[in-house]
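Course assignment 3, question 2. Fill in each field.
Student: A.L.
Task: Predict the tertiary structure for the chain below.
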Amino acid sequence: MRHPIALLLLATALLTPWRSADATPGEVRVGEVLREATMQGLNGPSRGLSSYRGKPLIINVWASWCGPCRAEMASLEGLAWSGAAQPFTLIGISTDDHPAAARAWLQRSNATVNHYIDRALELENMLGASQLPLTLLVDAQGRVLAKVYGARDWNSPASVAAVTRAFRSAASQANGGAPLRSASAPP
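Answer field:
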């Protein structure tokens, strides 16, 4: 082996989850309020993002070609319908280039929550989806509380507790308070 350090660096780079330190163009950061955007419905009507204000919101950004996105979809559905966490709404945003591919995946997965398709990278950039899946916790006023990059079991007791804690904390600090930090899912 002529260049063992170079090979080690290359292997490390390929095996390490990637997260850009740079924000996507127009990204709303943790602690900031989401801007209005019109979302084109995939399995329901189109809606404005601000129509979800008044209740905590979980936004999952995914794509039909993304294996980790597909893997966590059932646990998100389970979380949405479990009643275990504080009341919230869950929506999905597909970054697929073709709505038909996203619709086909939603039909195969028996999705019941509302899903929308991104257009011209508007939501992908605003939400900061430099890596998929991305899940955002948003308070009732539209302020981003946390961004979780990578797949996880959202219906696990630990995830349900974390979601409940984040939304309760935001509700108790409705007039200010320190935002939660961005996080990566455990490997």
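Instructor remarks: The chain has one domain: 41-175. The radius of gyration is 17 Å.
Grade: pending
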